[in-house]
Amino acid sequence: MLKWYKEIGKNNDVVISSRVRLARNLKSFPFSAKLNEEQALELVENLKAATPVLESKSEKKFYSCNIDGLTDSEKTAMVERHIISPLLLAREQSTGLILSEDERISIMLNEEDHLRIQSITGGMNIMGAFAEANAADDVASELFDYAYHEKYGYLTSCPTNVGTGLRASYMMFLPALNVTGKIVKLAEELSQYGIALRGTYGEASKSVGNLYQISNQKTLGSTEREIIESLNRIVEQVMKQERRYREYILTHNYDEFEDKVHRSFGVLKYAKQLSSSDAMTLLSQVKLGIDLELLHLEDDCNVHELMMEIQPGNLQCLLDKNMGSAQRDRFRADYIREKLPDMV
């Protein structure tokens, strides 16, 4: 089944993916920060009971598990694929996960809130992600009594999520804004509109391979549609800026940039060892070269899919064994060489 990161969606030269996350809590349990271990375990087991109901009301296959039942590689791979958050792994209490087979819908159990319902799609398709998250939320709301206030809306552990409990975000590929030094200024400008620009894995993370998350910061006082429409207007402007600076780079440094793209491709095709950091940097250059038609390959290549697959956890899951960093670096180089098509 096609995973979200294998999709080639709208505006995929700049917008990698769209994500909607809904924060919900149950009336019958204390919020996660106040749960004891016995309550946490009971909460997770109760919430996992939603799995067959979700499956019966959709065309998807769903799975559920307790996070402590996963291997370290599986946990890391799920963070890399944005299925679960680093915060969920850091929780010392019982936590769980409900996941659709295509990985588009994931529900974290007992993270910062009792339920974190997430839908993620490839490309610019935030309304599609919202529709799927909302459908899962409808199922959960029929099964569980949410903590809800008539005036304030959904009640959450963090005050910034009170209201709709909705965080909408785009994963954006912004190499030109980064290389021209415009990212810091962009982050400052976005914050004035209640929009956050963060690293690849969200708050407090750094950008890897020129991938950045852009999301709303406020959920109170606006409807879901208003939040999404506001974010879309901002993202449209960021796309225009990124494309404009790409044209600027081509106009002023064409030969140098063309050479850099082809060098990156050459290293990826012939290197015997590659760290994940080096591979992400080189793949970022290749993706930009393909998007700008500086690099022509014999077959189509979803570079972002390759970026996901060569992360440490995902590599170890592919081989179904733990590896040291040196082994991973060698296997990563072999894997990229095999998957990356030749140049025309």
UniProtKB/TrEMBL annotation:
One Pfam family linked to the record: ATP-gua_Ptrans
Signal peptide extent: none
Protein name per UniProt: Protein-arginine kinase
Coiled coil: none
Domain Phosphagen kinase C-terminal, first and last residues per copy: 14-245
Family, similarity comment: Belongs to the ATP:guanido phosphotransferase family.
PROSITE patterns named among the record's database cross-references: PHOSPHAGEN_KINASE, PHOSPHAGEN_KINASE_C
Record-level Gene Ontology MF annotations: ATP binding; creatine kinase activity; protein arginine kinase activity
Keyword Metal-binding: no
GO cellular component: extracellular space
Organism: Anaerocolumna chitinilytica
Regulation of its activity: Appears to be allosterically activated by the binding of pArg-containing polypeptides to the pArg-binding pocket localized in the C-terminal domain of McsB.
Function: Catalyzes the specific phosphorylation of arginine residues in proteins.
Record gene name: mcsB
Catalytic activity: L-arginyl-[protein] + ATP = N(omega)-phospho-L-arginyl-[protein] + ADP + H(+)
Record bears the keyword Transferase: yes
Entry keyword set: Allosteric enzyme, ATP-binding, Kinase, Nucleotide-binding, Transferase
InterPro entries xrefs: Arg_Kinase, ATP-guanido_PTrfase, ATP-guanido_PTrfase_AS, ATP-guanido_PTrfase_cat, Gln_synth/guanido_kin_cat_dom
Domain of life: Bacteria
Single Gene Ontology BP annotation: phosphocreatine biosynthetic process
Enzyme class at the top of the EC tree: transferase
Family matches, as Gene3D superfamilies: Glutamine synthetase/guanido kinase, catalytic domain
